[in-house]
Write a structure and sequence with these properties.
nine-stranded mixed β-sheet; 13 strands; alpha/beta
Amino acid sequence: MARQAVVEREAVDENEDVDECEEMEAADDDESVGAQPVSLLAAKGISATDIKKLQEAGYFTVESVAYATKKSLLGVKGISEAKAEKIFTEASRLIHMGFLSATEFHKQRQDLIYLSTGASELDKLLGGGIETGSITELFGEFRTGKTQICHTICVTCQLPANVGGAEGKAMYIDAEGTFRPERLVSIAERYGLDPQNVLDNVAYARAHNSDHQMQLLSAACAMMSESRYALIVVDSATANYRTDYNGRGELAARQQHLGKFLRQLQRIADEFGVAVVITNQVVAQVDGGAMFAADPKKPIGGNIIAHASQTRLYLRKGRGENRICKIYDSPNLPESEASFAIAEEGIRDCED
């Protein structure tokens, strides 16, 4: 009897160990999905006062702390060098920041969500749609469909994932005053969505200058840490910079500020896994090489914005309401073109 009791007890202990392992694995899976709130650092010995200081400085997630430089953490008021070292160390333990195999990374990319643009041919060109977790740049002259694409994906991102959505909210930073909520109503009706719910799920802000534009990103991080967002749009990312900085004398300052803004957008994409879509204006080339170019227009922002955007799409006018999208630069998509049309219900395929 005593031997049977021991055996039964060992079996119970093994089952408890298995259950504990399964719970730990489930917890690990939960931590890997979405951004982790910075309040988790409290369990690692970071005081509530220091966590509040981090939040006031714009660090709302563990990822934002782990991705920050120690210099930037030292810039937080009330954070000493010793505290910064401990905070950075504990955050780094919660976030994987080392190497992983190409096989693992390939598997992660296979799980990426793509947002439908509303036009099947354009989605096909983009390998499924607008990629989440990266920056997509739309550039072209006026009336080429940049803002209309932005309005359309603000609605499609709210659709279920199996029909080209991400079941998340959208955020729209408007620097040109071209955001129109009534367009969202028309697009929502096309997809059979409740227009009021669609409007409620889009957060809008008007960016009045380049400094305000940067401040809005801090507010965006706070909102994303509290609710599920799938998309952030900046229309346009460069308009305020063209007016806030004048001449070659301020060119270096402009590019440095623009570089910080784009870097912050990339961090938002990395932390929250959202799709970042920015629009850009174009300028006509007036140098000697322009006369030999088929299209003398080029995007503004120089190499700073060129290197920051993972996918760059060049939009130009077609016949009537038709527009043409060309893959201008991408790490994985071949150079190709697709046509789409602008309609009352948003972006759609061209009619034959």
